Design the sequence.
């Protein structure tokens, strides 16, 4: 079965694209108008602004996670497997951080005394991982409030890891770049899975988009229609204009917004 995959992302109002603390990665990397008939792996992370280096931590998380999932998809079948994926990302973060500190030293910009406590506390982010097999099944794992929605026959079939807008609170569970407690990670994680059919659509998004999506569903609207059209257009500018309109109307909070759309049409 052919899958079309597209990604759109815009920063919070007043921020630049380089300041966006969302991160996402899709493998295989293909243009949105080019289909793939093999497995698809996706990871989406939302860095917590209040933590130091949240943006690079989110990037390390998604890159490390997709690499692990591609190598061994069954890691998404259990909370313990997902925790092992996160521990691998923590190892990758240690390598990234050592390089970052060395580069700061080499360019006469050493770590300042007021940055040290933030480095010791570590960076924080949410994480959602998704794998679409080539035998009609999908699996996902999540920690935090980045969400996955499966749509079939013009109806929402599944919402994961939360299924109501009110459940998307202001204090989601977060992954810390210094946390090596796999049991603690597993206890805060969720896993899900199911089948897919031709015509199904999967929408993965960070919390601002997820809250908007669930609110629309609860009002008996069809938010997937809007996202499908924006995804088909593939224009970041159009997506940014739409997000700005939703924010201005009070329907979406001012936060970084990321959408990954997997279309099995």
Sequence:
């Amino acid at each position: 079965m052919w899958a079309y995959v597209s990604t759109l992302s815009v920063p919070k109002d007043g921020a630049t694209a380089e300041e966006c603390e969302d991160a996402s990665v899709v493998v295989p990397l293909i243009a949105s108008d080019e289909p793939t008939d093999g497995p698809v792996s996706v990871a989406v992370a939302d860095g917590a602004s209040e933590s130091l280096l949240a943006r690079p931590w989110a990037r390390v998380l998604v890159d490390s996670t997709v690499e692990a999932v591609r190598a061994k998809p069954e890691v998404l079948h259990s909370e313990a497997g997902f925790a092992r994926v996160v521990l691998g990302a923590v190892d990758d973060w240690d390598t990234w951080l050592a390089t970052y500190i060395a580069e700061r030293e080499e360019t006469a910009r050493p770590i300042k005394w007021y940055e040290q406590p933030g480095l010791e506390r570590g960076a924080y982010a949410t994480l959602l991982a998704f794998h679409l097999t080539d035998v009609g099944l999908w699996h996902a794992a999540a920690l935090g409030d980045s969400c996955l929605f499966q749509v079939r026959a013009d109806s929402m079939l599944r919402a994961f890891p939360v299924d109501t807008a009110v459940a998307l609170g202001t204090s989601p569970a977060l992954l810390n770049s210094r946390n090596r407690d796999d049991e603690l990670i597993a206890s805060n994680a969720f896993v899900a899975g199911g089948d897919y059919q031709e015509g199904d659509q999967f929408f993965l998004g960070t919390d601002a988009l997820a809250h908007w999506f669930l609110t629309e569903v609860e009002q008996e609207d069809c938010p997937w229609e809007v996202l499908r059209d924006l995804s088909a257009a593939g224009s970041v500018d159009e997506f940014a204009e739409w997000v700005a309109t939703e924010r201005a109307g009070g329907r979406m909070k001012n936060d970084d917004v990321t959408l990954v759309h997997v279309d099995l049409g």
In short: Residues 213 and 223 are 6 Å apart (CA to CA).
